[in-house]
Specification:
Length: 708
C-alpha cells in the first residue's frame, strides 16, 4: 500500500481498488478488480487527466466546457486529496477518501464499503461546506477506469446491458454497443481530438425508482474480459450517465439532479449533504458474471430479520381472481383451497376497506362492514385456523381526495407545490417528514397487527409524486429526497415494533424495485402482468435486478386451462418466490394436484435459494423473445434448476450451460415431474443443451440439471 498522494490501493478479501491522488489534480479511480487480479495500467502516468472520482456542480460553479453532461465540473477539477482512513469490523471494510477545494471552502468525502469476499462495493459522497453553497448535482461515483484496457478506441469495444421498465412491461433488458446506445463517433481527429459531448442517460423521476428504467445496469468488454455492474439504491429519482472523454468511456452514478429532477440543496457553514448510495460489482468475465457478484453483494447489504428466513409461499386473492373485490363469501372457499395447495400466508388484497368504489376515498384503512358483515376478523381467524398467516394490501403513502382525512390532516402533512396540495390520480400524497403523517400511518399499522393479527402487508404505491414538494422553501426534488429517506426510517421503525411482520414491496407492480427498499423489505412484486405468457420474460429477467429469494412472481392457474397453459402459468413462479393466485376452489382434483406439485417444487427451491446464483442460458431475456430461460445455479454442487419457456418460434432452443462444459450431465424433470413430450440432447464439448418442446402451444418446464 502506498499513500504518497500519487496512488492509493484498497484491498479487501474480495476486491482491489486503485486510485490516483496527484498533488495537482483530483482523485480518480484507476481500477476496480476482483481481489488477486492484476490492476490495469493507468490511462496516463499518475492518473493525470483521468475522470475525477467526484463531480460536483453548484449555482455559480458549473461545468467547463458547458454541456448537458454532469462531468467536467469546475469544482470536481479543483478538488485535491487531503486524507484517507480505513477501518474493518467483522466482514465490513470501509475506506474514506477526503478531498478539499480550499478556495471555495468545500470538503468532499467519498465513502466506500465492502462486505466479506464479495467483488463489490457500496459508495456515496458526503459534501461539507464552510460558507454558503447551493449544490445542484453531486456524483455518488464516477470513473473511466472500468475498461478492459486504456485505449481511446475502447469505447468501440464495450456493450451496455440495461432494462426498460413500465407497468405490466417490466424488466425489458437490452444489450447493445455503447455506440449504438448513443455515444456517437464524431470523428475526433477532425476536431483537434476534442471529446464529444454526447451522453447516454438512464434514470427515473418522482417516486417510482424503476418507473421507466431498472436502477441496475452493466458495461462489459465485447471480449468478455471485464464487466462492471451497478445498482442505484434510492427509492426516488436517480441518474446513470455514460459518455466519452479524452481517454475512453466514463460512467457517473448519482441521485437526483437539478437538470433532470428539480433537485438542489443549500448548505451553509458546516452543513453536510450525503448523496444517494450506489453499489458496483466487477468480474473478469461477462455481464452475467458481474451480476453474480452483485447478487452476492445484495445479500450482504440486506437487513434480514428472523421472520424473513421462513420464505413463506403467499397466496394473494387479487391477480386474475377477485381483482380488488373481496367479500367474506368469496374469500372463505379461497382460504380453504389455498391451505390445501400448501400456501403459508394468505393476503387479502385491495378493496377490503371500502363498501363500493374506493380509489379516491382511501386513507382510513378500516374494514368494510358491507364486504365483511361478520367483521374482517371472521376471515383472518379462518386463515389462521387453516394454518396460514393473514395479510392485507395497504397503500400507506396516499390519502384519497374524497377521504375525510384529506380535510382533517394538516396541509403540511401532504406534498405541496407553491402552496397547493398535490393531487394525482385522485390521491393526495403524504409527506412522511411531517409527524402527523407518520403518526397516522403508525396508528394504522399498529391497529391492523394488534386487532387482526396481520403478519403480512402488501405495501403498494400507485401514485407518482412528480418532482416533489417545495414546502419550506426547498427545491421540489430535495423535498422528495427528504420524504424518501423519511419513508425508509418509518419502515425501519415499523419492523422494529413488529418483528414478525413481513412487508412486500409493490408499486403498480415493480415501479419501486430498488435496494433502498429491498435491503429492508421481504420480497418484491415483479409485475401486475395478467398474461402468463407475457409474464415469462419478466419472471426470467427479475433476478438480474433483485435477489431470486425476493422475486415475487405471480402464478395464477385457472380451472379449464389446458395442461400446457396451466403448467406454463405455474412455472412462472417456481424459480423465485411463488406468488400464488387463481380460483383454486373451482378446480378439479387433477388441477389441484398440479398446483400442489408446483408449490412443493417451489418449497424445494426455497430450501437453498439464498445460496444460488441466477444464470440465463439463453442470455438476458428480451421482452419479445420466443424462448426464455432462467436457472438457479449451485456452484458447489455443479447443479442448477433451469426453467425454460417456449412462447413461439422454432421447436428447439440451445441452452448454454458453461458451468457443465466438458462433463456429462443428468437432466431430470423437476416441475412437472413428467417431461410430457419435452426432449433434450447434451453436447459436452460446447456446453449446450438442446431442448425441444412437443407442441406449438406455449409450453414451459423446469428441469434439475446436474453435472456428473
Amino acid at each position: 500500500m502506498t499513500t504518497d498522494h500519487r496512488s492509493i490501493r484498497w484491498e479487501t478479501p474480495g476486491l482491489s481498488v486503485s486510485f490516483a491522488a496527484p498533488e495537482d489534480g483530483p482523485v480518480s479511480v484507476l481500477g476496480v478488480r476482483p481481489a488477486g487480479s492484476p490492476a490495469p495500467e493507468p490511462v496516463l502516468p499518475g492518473g493525470h487527466g483521468e475522470q475525477p472520482l467526484v463531480e460536483l456542480s453548484a449555482f455559480g460553479h458549473g461545468r467547463f466546457p458547458g454541456s448537458y453532461r454532469h462531468v467536467d465540473t469546475v469544482i470536481g477539477r479543483e478538488l485535491r486529496f487531503a486524507s484517507e482512513t480505513r477501518t474493518a469490523h467483522d466482514d465490513r471494510h470501509e475506506l474514506r477518501i477526503t478531498q478539499v477545494d480550499a478556495a471555495r471552502g468545500i470538503r468532499v468525502t467519498s465513502v466506500f464499503e465492502a462486505y466479506g469476499s464479495t467483488a463489490a462495493l457500496r459508495t456515496w459522497t458526503e459534501v461539507t461546506v464552510a460558507t454558503d453553497l447551493v449544490i445542484d448535482a453531486v456524483s455518488s461515483f464516477a470513473t473511466g477506469s472500468f475498461l478492459a484496457d486504456a485505449r481511446a478506441e475502447s469505447v468501440d469495444a464495450l456493450v451496455l446491458a440495461h432494462a426498460d421498465n413500465d407497468w405490466i412491461a417490466e424488466s425489458r433488458w437490452r444489450v447493445e454497443p455503447l455506440r449504438t446506445a448513443g455515444l456517437v463517433d464524431v470523428l475526433r481527429q477532425a476536431h483537434h481530438h476534442q471529446p464529444p459531448r454526447t451522453r447516454i442517460t438512464l434514470g427515473n423521476r418522482g417516486s417510482w425508482s424503476s418507473g421507466e428504467k431498472v436502477p441496475v445496469a452493466a458495461v462489459a468488454a465485447t471480449d468478455a474480459g471485464y464487466a462492471l455492474a451497478w445498482q442505484i439504491e434510492h427509492n426516488g429519482p436517480w441518474l446513470a450517465e455514460l459518455g466519452e472523454n479524452g481517454h475512453g468511456a466514463y460512467v457517473l452514478l448519482s441521485g437526483p439532479t437539478d437538470q433532470e429532477h428539480q433537485w438542489s440543496v443549500r448548505l451553509r457553514d458546516g452543513e453536510t449533504f450525503a448523496s444517494v448510495p450506489v453499489s458496483l460489482a466487477v468480474a473478469l468475465g461477462d455481464t452475467a458474471d458481474a451480476l453474480h457478484a452483485l447478487t452476492d453483494h445484495r445479500r450482504a447489504i440486506r437487513h434480514p430479520r428472523a421472520v424473513d428466513d421462513a420464505l413463506p409461499v403467499v397466496f394473494n386473492d387479487y391477480m386474475n381472481t377477485l381483482m380488488g373485490d373481496p367479500t367474506t363469501e368469496r374469500l372463505l372457499p379461497l382460504v380453504d383451497a389455498a391451505a390445501e395447495a400448501g400456501a403459508d400466508y394468505f393476503c387479502i388484497d385491495a378493496g377490503w376497506y371500502a363498501d363500493g368504489h374506493w380509489w379516491d376515498g382511501v386513507g382510513a384503512w378500516e374494514p368494510s362492514t358491507v364486504r365483511f358483515p361478520g367483521g374482517i376478523a371472521e376471515v383472518t381467524e379462518h386463515i389462521r385456523s387453516r394454518g396460514m398467516t393473514p395479510g392485507l394490501w395497504l397503500e400507506p403513502e396516499v390519502i384519497g381526495v374524497r377521504s375525510p382525512l384529506a380535510e382533517t390532516l394538516p396541509d403540511d402533512a401532504f406534498f405541496q407545490r407553491r402552496g397547493v396540495r398535490i393531487a394525482e390520480h385522485g390521491r393526495h400524497l403524504l409527506d412522511l417528514r411531517h409527524p402527523a403523517a407518520r403518526a397516522h400511518l403508525d396508528a394504522v399499522v399498529d391497529r391492523l397487527v394488534d386487532e387482526y393479527g396481520i403478519g403480512f402487508i402488501k405495501m403498494d404505491e400507485n401514485t407518482m409524486t412528480g418532482p416533489g414538494s417545495d414546502l419550506g422553501g426547498l427545491a421540489p426534488g430535495h423535498g422528495h429526497l427528504e420524504h424518501a429517506r423519511a419513508l425508509l426510517d418509518w419502515i425501519d421503525a415499523v419492523q422494529e415494533r413488529h418483528p414478525d411482520l413481513l412487508i412486500e414491496n409493490c408499486s403498480s407492480g415493480a415501479m419501486r424495485m430498488d435496494y433502498a427498499l429491498l435491503s429492508r423489505l421481504h420480497m418484491q412484486s415483479t409485475s401486475d402482468q395478467q398474461d402468463p405468457v407475457a409474464y415469462a420474460s419478466i419472471a426470467a429477467a427479475a433476478p438480474a435486478a433483485i435477489l431470486p429469494e425476493q422475486a415475487g412472481n405471480w402464478a395464477y392457474p385457472q380451472t379449464g386451462m389446458s395442461t400446457e397453459a396451466r403448467t406454463f402459468a405455474l412455472v412462472n413462479g417456481v424459480l423465485g418466490r411463488m406468488y400464488l393466485s387463481g380460483y383454486l376452489n373451482r378446480m378439479t382434483s387433477v388441477e389441484v394436484d398440479a398446483v400442489r406439485a408446483a408449490v412443493t417444487a417451489q418449497k424445494t427451491v426455497l430450501a437453498d435459494v439464498r445460496d444460488r446464483h441466477p444464470v440465463w442460458p439463453l442470455g438476458l431475456p428480451a421482452w419479445d423473445a420466443e424462448w426464455v430461460s432462467l436457472g438457479l445455479h449451485d456452484p458447489t454442487a455443479a447443479q442448477a434448476y433451469v426453467s425454460v419457456w417456449r412462447r413461439g418460434g422454432g421447436a428447439t432452443a440451445s441452452l448454454h450451460l458453461p458451468w457443465a462444459r466438458g462433463r456429462e450431465i443428468e437432466v431430470t424433470p423437476f416441475f412437472p415431474a413428467d417431461a410430457a413430450g419435452w426432449t433434450w440432447a447434451w453436447d459436452a464439448e460446447s456446453g449446450v443443451l438442446e431442448t425441444t418442446a412437443p407442441t406449438a402451444e406455449p409450453s414451459a418446464r423446469t428441469f434439475d440439471v446436474r453435472a456428473l
